[in-house]
Design a protein that fits this description.
By secondary structure, the chain is an alpha+beta fold. About 15% of the residues lie in helices and about 45% in strands. It has two domains: about 130 residues, no CATH class; about 35 residues, no CATH class. The protein has three helices and nine strands, in the order βαββββββββαα. The structure holds zinc ion (ZN) (2 copies). The site of one zinc ion (ZN) has 7 residues, from loops.
C-alpha cells in the first residue's frame, strides 16, 4: 500500500493575524517533477517556515526551507542505482491572489514573486524543484568503479569476464597477424 503524503502548509492564520508559521514532513519513494520522477532511498525530509511581511501588493509572505534526502541515480560507468545525498535550501517571496488554481511566478522589480490562490499552500512543486536543482550531473557508485565491459557488457565490479583487452579493430588484428608472421 502506498501512502499519499500531501505536502502543504496552511497560511489562514497568518492571513488573519500576521506572524510566522512552519511545517515539516517527509516525501516517500519519489520526487515528482513535471516530466520525470526521481527515486528516493528512504524519505526526503523537508521543513518550511513562512513569515508574513508588509507588501505593496497586499498579502505577502517570505518562505524559506530546506529538503534533504537520498536520490537514487545511475552510476555513470556501470549504471548501478546509487543512493546520492542531496540537500537543498530555498527561499521565495509569495503573494496571495485569490482565485488562482496553481502557483504562478511573476517578476517584479527584478524579483521573482510566486502567486498562490489558496491558503493551503501546496509545497510539492517548490520542494521538488529545489531538490532537482541540487542533483549532481553524474555520480559514481564508488571512486574506482570499473564500469561495464565494452565487449560483453558485464559489470566489471562484479565479474571478471576475461575481456581485458580493448576490442581489436580489423587493422589491429591484421597488424598482429603480420607481426606474428615476421616472428616465424
Ligand atoms: Zn559504478
Ligand atoms: Zn567482457
Amino acid at each position: 500500500m502506498k501512502e499519499i503524503h500531501i505536502q502543504s502548509i496552511n497560511l489562514s492564520r497568518l492571513m488573519r493575524e500576521g506572524g510566522s508559521t512552519d511545517a515539516r514532513g517527509e516525501i516517500l519513494e519519489y520526487i515528482t517533477l513535471e516530466k520525470e520522477r526521481i527515486p528516493l532511498e528512504g524519505p526526503a525530509r523537508w521543513k518550511v517556515g513562512v513569515t508574513r511581511v508588509e507588501g505593496e501588493g497586499g498579502q505577502e509572505f517570505w518562505l524559506s526551507g530546506e529538503i534533504a534526502g537520498y536520490a537514487v541515480l545511475e552510476c555513470r560507468r556501470c549504471l548501478t542505482p546509487t543512493p546520492t545525498p542531496v540537500r537543498a535550501h530555498f527561499q521565495y517571496m509569495l503573494r496571495y491572489q485569490p482565485g488562482l488554481t496553481h502557483l504562478e511566478a511573476i517578476e517584479e522589480d527584478e524579483e521573482e514573486i510566486l502567486l498562490f490562490g489558496h491558503p493551503d499552500l501546496d509545497l510539492g512543486p517548490l520542494l521538488s524543484e529545489a531538490f532537482a536543482l541540487e542533483l549532481p550531473y553524474t555520480v559514481l557508485c564508488k571512486e574506482d568503479c570499473k564500469g561495464l565491459c565494452p565487449v560483453c557488457g558485464a559489470n566489471r565490479n562484479e565479474v571478471d569476464c576475461g575481456h581485458h583487452e580493448e576490442p581489436q579493430t580489423k587493422l589491429g588484428a591484421e597488424l598482429s597477424r603480420l607481426m606474428g608472421d615476421l616472428k616465424d
